[in-house]
């Protein structure tokens, strides 16, 4: 039986964009597990598995329901230990926790503010109303004002990727010779940007972009199967 993954979408169900859902998809593929995605817009989340979680991703594996991307990765690791590891042991789990915090603090904020209107424009009207209400409360300003000045902040964003950029001079993946869940954490954020917005977050000659392109081709091109936003 396939694992069910509730996957965040806008008007176009073929363009799922949640960074956290992308982490889980890559983790499931890494483990070689069969899964089916259930397109889920923002306003449908409260009904997922009879209100099992206020957030997605959510997976159902038989009778087990798990929410939160990191919790799902841990569940997959411990439930399917004989399949390829997502962490490489306890040290890898701890390292992935650090990478997740770094990504939340360094990568997510610039993408979230810079691509805000791109996200809004790809939603159905009912989800636009929800998105506007929740995001204007979060940012304390009209939605249209949030991305203003993103070009002036772009170089700072790229500079803040220096730890990842310099590390990739020594190894092809964050996980070392092969990818681990820590790679999927950062990949999910950049895939979010790629799928939802045509804005150039990475320079074409950036080693981070070269790493991202490698990640797009993993698992039979799972990430690349969704075209970049135009």
Largest sheet: 4 strands, mixed
Biggest sheet strand order reads 2-1-3-4
What CATH architecture label applies?
A: Up-down Bundle
CATH topology description: Glutathione S-transferase Yfyf (Class Pi), Chain A, domain 2
Name the CATH class.
Answer: Mainly Alpha
Averaged pLDDT, please?
A: 97
Give the fraction of residues assigned to helices: 40-55%
Q: What are the low-pLDDT stretches, counting only 5+ consecutive residues below 50?
A: none
The percent range for strand residues is: 5-15%
Element-by-element helix/strand order? EHEEEHHHHHHHHHH
Secondary-structure-based class equals: alpha+beta
**What would the principal axes of the Cα set say about the shape?**
globular
Q: Count every helix, treating DSSP H or I runs of 4 or more residues as helices.
A: 11
Summed up, the domain count is 1
State the end-to-end distance: 36 Å
User: In angstroms, what is the radius of gyration?
Assistant: 17 Å
Overall number of strands: 4
Topology of helices and strands:
Elements: E1 3-8, H1 19-30, E2 35-40, E3 58-61, E4 64-67, H2 69-79, H3 90-106, H4 108-114, H5 116-121, H6 125-139, H7 150-159, H8 162-167, H9 181-196, H10 207-216, H11 218-221
Parallel strand pairs: 1-2
Antiparallel strand pairs: 1-3, 3-4
Pfam families: GST_C_7, GST_N_3
Domain GST N-terminal: 8-84
GO molecular function, one term: maleylacetoacetate isomerase activity
